[in-house]
Amino acid sequence: xxxxxxxxxxxxxxxxxxxxxxxxxxxxxxxxxxxxxxxxxxxxxxxxxxxxxxxxxxxxxxxxxxxxxxxxxxxxxxxxxxxxxxxxxxxxxxxxxxxxxxxxxxxxxxxxxxxxxxxxxxxxxxxxxxxxxxxxxxxxxxxxxxxxxxxxxxxxxxxxxxxxxxxxxxxxxxxxxxxxxxxxxxxxxxxxxxxx
Length: 196
Ligand SMILES: C[S@@+](CC[C@H](N)C(=O)[O-])C[C@H]1O[C@@H](n2cnc3c(N)ncnc32)[C@H](O)[C@@H]1O
Known about the structure:
By secondary structure, the protein is α/β, with parallel strands linked by helices. It has helices at residues 2-11, 25-37, 52-59, 71-84, 117-123, 156-162; strands spanning 42-46, 63-68, 88-92, 104-110, 125-136, 166-174, 181-188.
């Protein structure tokens, strides 16, 4: 949506990295496990922002496609990518109604909630592929102004993924921390083995 592009371009306007340079803690803490579990190294970073998670994955040997509506975010990601000598395929994309038309071994969806996109993310995973998902949870400890529609409700993430064919490897909600989140690590059903 054009309004999102304008809003996020304004947030990312100056040279500071608004989301920081470090990757998401959840992603960083799981990276060895992800390298073990993913069938290959093609990764997609959904709503990548300024690219902190994409660049981290590229440093870990993943071939990363990174999509976001903010051209300013993408510009900052590309600039950092060049200075760090890694490659990420950054793409300007509006995820509203977006069809993911390639297949990935790993999809990361961090600090972004589109309920409609989740089934399409699972479809875009290769058999045995992993989806790592974490975003903000509605909770009394949550500070600032947030649009309720973009916040997870308690138990909601589990419900959304229970509909999908695969295994929930990890699920947690942290309602009491300063920035409350819900998170999930999901593995798509692997290839079916024919026993003869
Ligand atoms: C809180 S930031 C998260 C960025 C990144 N995932 C991270 O954790 O650093 C949310 C991102 O969603 C992107 N976004 C919002 N609406 C979008 C849309 N309709 N299509 C694509 N990206 C969108 C914004 O541009 C912004 O970069």
